[in-house]
Amino acid sequence: MPPLDEFGRIRAWTEGRQSKKWMVEAGVTLGIGDDAAVVAGGTSATEWLLAMDTMVEEVHFLDATMSESDVGYKALAANISDIAAMGGTPKFALVSVSVPPAWNAERMKLLFDGLYECADKYQVAVIGGDTTSAPSHLVVAVTLMGFVEAGKAVRRDGARPGQSVFLTGPTGLSAGGLHGLLNNIGSIPARLAQAHQRPSPSVKAGRLLLETGWAASLNDVSDGVASEAWEIAEASGVRLLLKETLLPISGELASYALEHGIQPLDLVLYGGEDYVLLGTVDKQHEHSMKDRFRREGIPLFIIGEVEAGEPGVAIQSASGKVKPMDKRGYNHFSKG
């Protein structure tokens, strides 16, 4: 039996454990399989969004790439991005840390300095958690609760043939920053390092997309554009065609990639942790959407279209040649 990737393992561990009928009776609108779960809220007008992310030392971060406060900031920011991808507002956080001997009280204070800096910026209340010891590596796990208007959460499964595919910002910046930090490159552009160490979840863009109803489907770019596009394609039962000439590449990333012999398109498509939003929109809304995003000062790029066919993702080159895209991005259980 071939080894399972991250999502294959999730399915193997969870599928069929609890019936859909029982979940609905328990108040679950949407369970495992999207950026956040959606459950019955405190009022008839809202529902709760629940998300959880974990950061493990030497898997998600190293001393060479992130300071203690960066680790804390990013641990919360990753969760906020999941709430943003559903069009929600982040609200309450629970923080669990497993602390090894090398992480003394001062280092942990710096970590929580960064976490609270992110919490204050996005108006998240840190309300509890857990603390344990760990033998060798630090583990930070954050559970985040947010809220969304009842029945309005934007899901991955709404893409339909004829829609356009969009991004709410350039991608590849975080991957470029990680490359420079890992290789101790002193000339790394500040924007790339910032994108990796202190990412900006797209809460404003997510709320705008929900309030206008423009986004038919939505996903945050945590594991790379290719991987997130595949998730939308599979959830919606459609084919996404991305166009190479429409993919945004920032000037800083292009210059850095050229200087260091990297293909910028690889970083754009397969680098992760940019936390912009990838989604689909009916073509009739494109003009209004572009105009509103411009007025709000939020980047927006149309990068492809949705087609009928076997679920998957393809890319069209500048010459017009179309080739399938691998379902590739960051995978915790990949050996490659």
Automatic annotation (TrEMBL):
Pfam families: AIRS (PF00586), AIRS_C (PF02769). Keywords: ATP-binding, Kinase, Magnesium, Metal-binding, Nucleotide-binding, Thiamine biosynthesis, Transferase. Its EC number is 2.7.4.16. SUPFAM superfamilies: PurM C-terminal domain-like (SSF56042), PurM N-terminal domain-like (SSF55326). ATP binds at G129, D130, R156, S222. InterPro entries: PurM-like_C_dom (IPR010918), PurM-like_C_sf (IPR036676), PurM-like_N (IPR016188), PurM-like_N_sf (IPR036921), ThiL-like (IPR006283). Gene3D superfamilies: PurM-like C-terminal domain, PurM-like, N-terminal domain. Residues 160-310 form the PurM-like C-terminal domain. It catalyses: thiamine phosphate + ATP = thiamine diphosphate + ADP. Mg(2+) 5 binds at D223. Mg(2+) 4 binds at D35, D82. This is Thiamine-monophosphate kinase. It comes from Cohnella lupini. The lineage of its organism: Bacteria, Bacillati, Bacillota, Bacilli, Bacillales.
